[in-house]
Structures are given as structure tokens and as C-alpha cells.
Amino acid sequence: MAGGGHHQSVRLDPAIERWSAMRENVYQNFTFTRRASRTAIALGILVPGAIALVAMAYDEKFDMAGKRRGESLITGQSGAKPAAKE
């Protein structure tokens, strides 16, 4: 009935099927080359290290709790100008 499921409604492209099989099995064929090593080091060590350095540099520099309009967000600054009244 209705073809019995023995036909393909979409024609398969062999190149796309080979690429798909390669993508599914990439972990089986992976080897660390110079390029792969550089990428792993950059994305695994350098980028998180840079983010950590920026986070440590700006840690406790800004204080947003209880600030009013016109007051400085930078910790340790006093004597901010009050907001102008209209």
C-alpha cells in the first residue's frame, strides 16, 4: 500500500553524506597537530586567563549599591557633585 516504503522522497548527495559521516566520527580521527595545539591553548588557557585578569583588575572598583543620581560609582571617591535641581 502506498509504495511500501521502498522509495526515497529526497535524492541523497554522496558528497554531503561523506561530509556528514566525517563530522559524526571526527573524534575517532582527531590528532593533535601544531595548529590544533595552538587553538586548544588559546581557547583553553589564554582566553580564560585574560578574562580572569580583567575581572581581578576591576574587582571591587565599582559600587552600585545605594547610589543616587550624580554620585560616582567608583569606590573610594567622595565629594561627588549633587544632582542639579530644576
UniProtKB/TrEMBL annotation:
It comes from Dioszegia hungarica. Signal peptide: none annotated. PANTHER family: NADH DEHYDROGENASE [UBIQUINONE] 1 BETA SUBCOMPLEX SUBUNIT 4, NADH:UBIQUINONE OXIDOREDUCTASE 6.6KD SUBUNIT. InterPro entries: NADH_UbQ_OxRdtase_NDUFB4_su. The lineage of its organism: Eukaryota, Fungi, Dikarya, Basidiomycota, Agaricomycotina. Belongs to the complex I NDUFB4 subunit family. The chain crosses the membrane at residues 40-58. This is NADH dehydrogenase [ubiquinone] 1 beta subcomplex subunit 4. It is a single-pass membrane protein. It is found in: Mitochondrion inner membrane.
